[in-house]
Amino acid sequence: MNTGRPASTRLRWWWVGGSALVLAVVVVGAVMVGPIALSPADIVRSVVDRLPFIGLDTGLSDRSEAILWEIRMPRVVLAVLVGSMLSAAGAAYQGVFRNPLADPYLLGAGAGAGLGATVAIVYAPATSGWIIDPLPVAAFGGAIGGVALAYALGYTVRRGRTAVTLILAGVAVAAFLTALQTFLQQRESDTLREVYGWILGSLNTAGWGEVSLVAPYVVVCLSVVLVGRRLLDILAVGDTEAGTLGVRPGRVRLIFVVFATLGTAAVVSVSGLIGFVGIIVPHTVRLLTSASYRVVVPISILLGGAFLVLADIIARVAVAPAEIPIGVVTAIIGAPFFAVVLRTSKGITS
Amino acid sequence: MKGVLEFSDIDVVYGRSRVLHEVSVDVGAGEWLGIVGPNGAGKSTLLRTIAGAVSYSGSVLVDGQAIDDRSLKERAKLIAYVSQRPLYPRGMAVFDYVLLGRTPYLGPLAAETQDDIARVWEALDALHLVDFADRDVATLSGGETQRASLARVLAQRAPIAVLDEATASLDVAAQHEVLELIDRLRTDLGITVVSAIHDLTAAAQFCGRVALINEGGVVAVGRPEEVLTERLLGEVFEPSIRVIDVDGSTVIVSLRTEETVREY
Amino acid sequence: MIRRFAPFVVVVALFATACNSDGSRDSAPPDTPTTTSVEAEPTTTSARETTTATSARETTTTTEPAEDGFPVTINAPNGRVTIERPPERIVSISPTSTEVLFAIGAGDQVAAVDSMSDFPENAPVTELSAFTPSVEAIASFDPDLVFLSFDPSDIVAGLEAIGIAVILHGTALTMDDAYGQWEQVGTATGHVSEAAALVATTTADMLSAFDSLPETSDSVTYYYELGPTLYSATSATFIGGLLAPAGMENIADPADTDGFGYPELSAEYIIDADPTLILLADTKCCGASLDTVAQRPGWASMTAVANGNVVELDDDIASRWGPRVVDLVEDVVAAILRLELTNS
Questions:
Q1: Which residues contact C272 (CB under 8 A, 6 or more apart)?
Q2: Residue B258's domain spans which residues?
Q3: Residue of A246, A248, A291 lying closest to B104 (CB–CB)
Q4: Is the pLDDT of residue C295 over 90?
Q5: Residue A248, min C-alpha distance to chain C (Å)
Q6: Residue A127: band (very low, low, confident or very high) from pLDDT cuts 50, 70, 90
Q7: Does the reported pTM lie above 0.90?
Q8: What residue ranges define each of the domains in chain C, with the CATH number in brackets?
Q9: What was the ipTM of the complex prediction?
Q10: C-beta atoms surrounding B173 within 10 Å
Q11: How far is CA C99 from CA B21, B258, C152, C167, C223, in A?
């Protein structure tokens, strides 16, 4: 008689280690690379210099130090946070809705954030007079509002607390909010470029302020999704059978949606609507490792951060010193990805 | 925990139509109750009341206590359920699928213990699935997946197993195998089995107690020889049904005669 | 997802040629001679195509001897337009055209202007949309001449079909293009001499502004910001051409490899380039100012920010090609002069 789980179903340590290594390498690469060439040796010296009790002459000018520490570092950190959060949220949504095409914007978070951002851009443009910048707050609120609306709509259906009903409600809400936003944008067409730029997603103006704004949400929400990941596997057998195994599918779904959406709303509010990450990363992780959410969630967190850092490197460097909006980069990677997955469709797991 | 199950005055309404009407059935510990009846009679619905998937009036009692009074986890330790068309998640290993049966004994955050793992291997062994342990459950054949569901039920260690059409779409041999396995679980472990069965012969041969349901109401409850009679079956299904004894086993078939041809 | 981008691509394409923006410019270099009767193409599908304005010196307006010089025929970018008598009910769906009309004294011939035509203040603003103009809405003002700056959904053809004279003055590529348009406005409205005077004054003012700049060997670099996501305009754009006589170097030029004219820059690059002057054209839309710019991560280390060499331009003036461009030029020149003073 065997003891222990079969090898293939465990979270193998080298998956975790390998992913962490990939993330570390990519992060180091992102710090080293940029439209402005800084010598790696100087960068290392600068990092060491920042450690307590060590003072080094870094050989970087004040301006280069500013570039490194106030522009590049926070941007890389933000990319990790955003990438991990979107990937984990995507995995969570795919799990609770048993749908491989689910992404964090499924229930209207993206459309709501876009509407909120448009409203802020149109009606509160001169933001220098405000204590807090209304744009991220409006985007955040819009994202939460969109999902809340989808839930409310889904619950009005009598026997409708099923996964499918919620998805349909989300599609309806997203379409409605997008229409509102397009209408508003049309009427206030002189703000078009700004809105479009926001929607395409950008880490261009990231600083430590954005990082500190977003980090608490991301840490909390990632923790919840990570800790509860077994429940996603339980939900995979369907609401009815999951209920007889002792979980409440509706409640579990709600909790995951709440925290995945909260985290998504937070990152979207500073980075705009970066698409494809929430779908590509969990699917790729499944292809490489296992379909169990015990594995998919933690590995998606690590590789999701790495993926977005990589995409940001491309965004910064490919047409330097100009930038490509990061949403465009992820879309360029995303479209062929889906083509590949379709061709090897045995690999699609839900 | 003996596993005595009692349905009492169950009424279920979907929209405007009453799907179940004052259904009262009971089954003793360790017995096998087969629920038979035409399509749409309400067999699945009755089972889903135990699973908590449908709202009903009336009461479902396990060992004298209404299941609604128990917590979800307690219910999960009492009743194991396999739905009519189970979802076999793609990419999930058979081992992990059976391990799901241990969920009521773990918190959502707790990892499985060695004890849980041992029970899973036991269940796989009893259902001849040890070699399939790391296969993707969605790639198994019909009979194999049914066995995987039964293994999960076994791992769940519940005194009552509720199976909705455990043998639909299985070939003759696979169906026989699955039914024998279920019966073995029942006799070895004293599990009470409640299953919806479309195959009347299987019901006659395996069930100790049968409830015949038609149009949401109970037509008859009792031993197979009392309920599965040509008269009752003829009224509920069609008149060309024959109940035949072959070497001591009961066989129930529908005959094709000139009369029946003319009828259709 | 992709489906979400589609309406925005269309909308941006339309926006790109709206008169209210620094829309995408033709990638042809400014000195390409443009034919006078180029048909304005509908631009709903391509963000790059734009109407090409007539080059000033190639305008031929044939006047036949009659009262006030009318009837006139103008070679507008949308074809030959004949105007029988001085128009009394002009409708302008182009803020630039509105400014020009009033500047040449044709203001009392204007019946209605679009919702974005906010200068001068006494212009008869209506709800007409510059962005999605409708033939019926325009026609309801019973106009005898309509000015547009771009042509969504064939509105020019629609107006011509009901017998309304239309002049399509699209985004100017150079000041010469703009002057040519102003002169056509003058001809069309019976204010030929006023228009000529306006052109002359503007040319003179700009010349004197640039002349006040000393010859120095320091090369001044500048960063021109169109939006808070660091969209910039290169020297190949209208604005770039406008400021060219100042002899400054635009830091966005190396970033614009495909000549599109409006690259989005990265913060690192801007900081490293450390431009001498920062010109903000997103003050009204997006609240950009010396203060907000100084708060951006890393920007406080830039010399321009530290020394206050940040010019807050008026978005509207910066995105139009009317007579107020002189104000913009003078503001920039003043800023350069302040630099020289502090440097010497």
A1: A35, A36, A63, A64, A67
A2: 229-264
A3: A246
A4: no
A5: 31
A6: low
A7: no
A8: 2-207 (3.40.50.1980), 214-343 (3.40.50.1980)
A9: 0.89
A10: 9
A11: 81, 97, 22, 15, 27
